[in-house]
Amino acid sequence: MTDGSGVVRASDAGTAVFVVVAVAAALARRAFSTVALVVSLGLFGAGCLAFLAAYALAVRRSRTDAIGMGGLFLLQGTAPKEVRRRLLGALALQVLVAVGTAAAHPFTSQAFVILAPMFGLGMAGLWAALYGRFAPR
Question: H-type helices in 2-117, by residue range?
Fold first, then answer.
């Protein structure tokens, strides 16, 4: 993998922690509900910061590059296949685990896991804003 491997590794690490904690909380809610809440809110906050940073960087780059939202946050035509597969795969896994584990215990603190996929979206956008290949303006 070329540039941006740190962003991809951070996305993988955040996803792994989230999956383990969310599934543990769904199986043993009393023991892991607080941990799942903290991890989910932490990933949501980090994802919001990454999203805003990606947007600010993209605005700056838009003076010279034609940046679209699909290319920025969904990596359409802007990232190598391996990077796209890993970042969007992590996002998809976060969404599946969040929906599945939140559905296991609705109307409890477990529902906060639904916020965590913001991390995957923010990390994909951050990678594209920093390293993505966009057509010139």
Answer: 5-27, 29-61, 69-73, 81-104
